[in-house]
Write a structure and sequence with these properties.
The chain has eight helices and five strands; from the N terminus they run E-E-H-E-H-H-E-E-H-H-H-H-H. It has helices at about 20-25, 60-65, 65-70, 90-100, 105-120, 120-135, 140-165, 190-205; strands at about 1-5, 10, 45-50, 75, 85-90. A five-stranded mixed β-sheet has the order 2-1-5-3-4.
């Protein structure tokens, strides 16, 4: 099936977590903790298809305020695709990016509101995370490994963007050297008397940097 994340079509399968779908398809989403439900950067807003996703769990409810839930917010590392259909999502990190680019005056009120929503759930969030550690549901070594992997993925994505993001539509410019005698193919068909004069004329037409010996390899 397909899921639309940040206006980009992504391939997905029933049972996959939303965060894994986004990461597999290289879509902009936060995942600093590696998908372990700690950093709260992988929030997504469900625009369409909420009924196709897994129900809200107690862990999600401990992180999300009632207002965020009413607005269709889900925690991507705790939400899976439950059944096939059309799902449209907007990640919070992409929402912030678009806001900074297009509506910068709205960013401070937005951050203040999100901070307040996290604050009102802070006691429940701490209690839930403490219980997870106590029950052994969070392996410290695995958590460390996931965080390192997430950072590595982010660095890799940044490097790819810097390498190909300036003008990806521009074709590669390949330099190809040309032998002096190949500059004008018609010169091969001239008689022996005119050949020397033709080659001299060709040499004069070529830039000095391209005038290489006939037997030299093309680099």
């Amino acid at each position: 099936m397909q899921i639309n994340i940040n206006d980009r079509t992504c391939q997905a399968a029933v049972g996959e977590r939303l965060i894994d779908v986004a990461r597999t398809n290289h879509t902009h989403i936060g995942y600093f903790c590696g998908g372990n439900g700690l950093c709260q950067t992988c929030y997504v807003k469900v625009i369409k298809g909420m009924d196709l996703l897994s129900p809200l769990s107690d862990r999600e409810k401990a992180l999300l305020s009632d207002d965020l839930i009413r607005q269709g917010t889900r925690v991507a590392c705790m939400t899976t695709v439950d059944k096939p259909g059309t799902v449209e999502l907007l990640t919070t990190v992409e929402e912030v990016k678009r806001m900074v680019e297009n509506r910068p005056l709205e960013i401070i009120p937005y951050q203040a509101r999100m901070g307040w929503e996290a604050l009102v759930k802070f006691p429940e969030t701490i209690a839930m995370q403490a219980q997870r550690f106590a029950e052994g549901k969070l392996d410290p070594w695995q958590l460390f490994t996931d965080v390192v992997t997430a950072i590595g993925d982010a660095v890799s994505l940044t490097i790819r963007t810097l390498q190909h993001g300036w003008n990806p539509a521009e074709p590669d410019k390949t330099f190809k050297r040309q032998y002096v005698h190949e500059h004008d193919p018609a010169a091969k068909h001239t008689n022996q008397t005119d050949k020397t004069a033709g080659k001299d004329a060709e040499k004069n037409m070529l830039p000095e940097a391209l005038r290489i010996h006939q037997k030299a390899p093309v680099n």
